[in-house]
Design brief:
2 domains; 8-stranded mixed β-sheet; 3-stranded antiparallel β-sheet; 11 strands; about 35% helix
Length: about 210
């Protein structure tokens, strides 16, 4: 059983999806720790209800990003993590953290990368007149939202959609896609190498594995 550590800042709905997949056996691993930079994150309650260890590490207690990330590395290592999953962790990570877990650090981003890195992705897709939107799971590198894409799920943008309705469509896809990618990693099917994502020994295309 591989040890998974999840980093959160908010409600933790993707955390819940991953915990559920572990308990159901579709991920051959276990969430052993949940770390948040915010003490009031509801995801901590989700973890505690599941009997999973939690830790709060407030960025306000550190003078700069590097010292915070060094403490975060130590906290993750305390759980002997095989896989580190960012699930709504609202921090820009420095190379101090990324280099410590490169190749076993995943993030989920609400756009079809490389489109719309950063924030407010749903509104940006609407403003651009896009006909489809989606979500990407990628390996984390030092470039913000720039690591190799592993998988994407697409949704259609309807005429009446707004940012909220689009977010709901995306969340539904996230809760299926993220556990799937985690299962690939813990089963040894997924690796990062040569700056690319590899699945079952084959280089994935730039858009990753695409579902609809």
């Amino acid at each position: 059983m591989k040890n998974i550590v999840v980093l959160i800042s908010g409600s933790g709905s993707n955390l819940q999806a991953i915990m559920d997949a572990c308990s159901q056996g579709s991920i051959n691993g276990r969430v052993v720790g949940v770390i948040s930079n915010k003490a009031n994150a509801y995801g901590l309650t989700r973890a505690e209800n599941a009997g999973i260890a939690t830790r709060v590490l407030s960025h306000k207690d550190y003078g700069d990003r590097e010292s915070y990330d060094a403490a975060l590395v130590s906290a993750v290592n305390d759980f002997a993590a095989d896989l580190v999953v960012l699930a709504g962790f609202m921090r820009i990570l420095t190379p101090v953290f990324v280099s410590a877990f490169e190749g076993r650090l995943l993030n989920i981003h609400p756009s079809l990368l490389p489109k719309y890195k950063g924030l407010h992705t749903h509104q940006r897709a609407l403003d651009a007149g896009d006909k489809e939107h989606g979500v990407s799971v990628h390996f984390v590198t030092a470039e913000l939202d720039g690591g190799p894409v592993i998988a994407q799920a697409k949704v259609s943008i309807a005429d009446g959609d707004d940012a909220d309705s689009l977010a709901e469509k995306i969340h539904q896809q996230e809760h299926q896609l993220y556990p799937l990618v985690c299962s690939w990693f813990v089963d040894g099917r997924l690796q990062m190498g040569e700056g690319k994502a590899w699945l079952d020994g084959q280089v994935l295309p730039a858009c990753g594995y695409v579902t609809h």
